[in-house]
Design a protein that fits this description.
The protein has 2 domains: 54 residues, no CATH class; 200 residues, Muramoyl-pentapeptide Carboxypeptidase, domain 2 (2-Layer Sandwich), CATH 3.30.1380. The protein has 7 helices and 8 strands. The strands form 3 sheets. A 4-stranded mixed beta sheet has the order 5-8-6-7, covered by helices on one side. Strands 1-3 form a two-stranded antiparallel ribbon. Helix 7 links the parallel strand 6 and strand 7. Helix 1 crosses helix 2 and helix 2 packs across helix 3. The relative contact order is 0.13. It binds zinc ion (ZN).
């Protein structure tokens, strides 16, 4: 029983509705047997139902696959499989406009999203994020070039877009260099050898950040990005913020949020 309790907690933390699917599957196992198969079917059904009912809770799903230049899509369909691709309609309009802008300035560019929010319940945090609990927060992937300097269409250094960090250059601001306290500022050193060694597409990434900074929405509009990237990309603007030394690094992706 403890094992199933832990599975339900883990699935709820990871996917929100997965825990419900496991609990229902446990009940139905008495009749049908085959726990994992029943779970898979229930999880799929609940995921589809969530897609169509989330708008009643004020959230919409971001596309799981490429949907053309005028719409942002998630970088990896895994985000949809885990129900982590829900945002407010206002956030979707905003980042779709960014996507269209990027295609206009750099034809053929695709803009990709990472973790958004779960489909339901304001205040239900999506770990490991400290926010991402209302559809008003969204992480976006940076843009990259391959080793040959060619833009990599809709791809990032890591398959899920996180943890391919840009390192500060000599002289760049490094406000957390002396930070030794407990923090979520993970460096993921062990992972680095397995990630693509692609240079940041500075022109596209700077253009996207500039557009976001110049087109604020709603209230409390902010973009988290590391200070060394703001310097390196020659950016400025009140919306570009440093998240502090206790939260996750933002030089592998950017975090966008506002209250609609
Ligand atoms: Zn975020």
């Amino acid at each position: 029983m403890i094992k199933h309790g832990l599975i339900i907690i883990a699935l709820t933390v990871l996917t929100q509705i997965g825990g419900i699917a496991w609990a229902l599957a446990l009940a139905l196992r008495m009749i049908f047997g085959r726990l994992v198969l029943i779970f898979a079917i229930l999880y799929l059904c609940l995921t589809v139902i969530a897609h169509y009912t989330a708008p009643l809770a004020g959230r919409v799903a971001l596309p799981c696959l490429d949907a053309g230049p005028a719409q942002i899509a998630v970088l990896n369909p895994l985000y949809c499989a885990l129900n982590r691709n829900y945002v407010s309609p206002e956030m979707k309009s905003h980042v779709d406009a960014l996507s269209a802008h990027m295609h206009e300035v750099f034809p053929g560019t695709r803009t990709r999203a990472l973790d958004a929010s779960f489909p339901f319940l304001d205040g239900f945090a999506m770990l490991p994020h400290l926010s991402h609990d209302s559809g008003d927060q969204l992480d976006l992937a940076f843009y990259y070039t391959g080793e040959d300097g060619e833009y990599q269409l809709g791809k990032a250094k890591s398959p899920i877009g996180y943890w391919g960090f840009e390192q500060p250059r000599p002289g760049d601001p490094q406000p957390c260099a002396a930070n030794t306290g407990i923090s979520m500022r993970w460096d993921m050193d062990a992972l680095q050898p397995y990630l693509r060694d692609w240079p940041l597409d500075e022109a596209r990434t700077a253009e996207a950040l500039r557009w976001l900074a110049n087109n604020p929405q709603g209230s409390d509009y902010k973009i988290f990005v590391e200070p060394h990237l703001v310097t390196r990309l020659g950016l400025s603007g009140d919306a570009l913020r440093f998240q502090g030394c206790r939260a996750a690094r933002h030089d592998d992706h950017l975090h966008l949020e506002f209250a609609p």
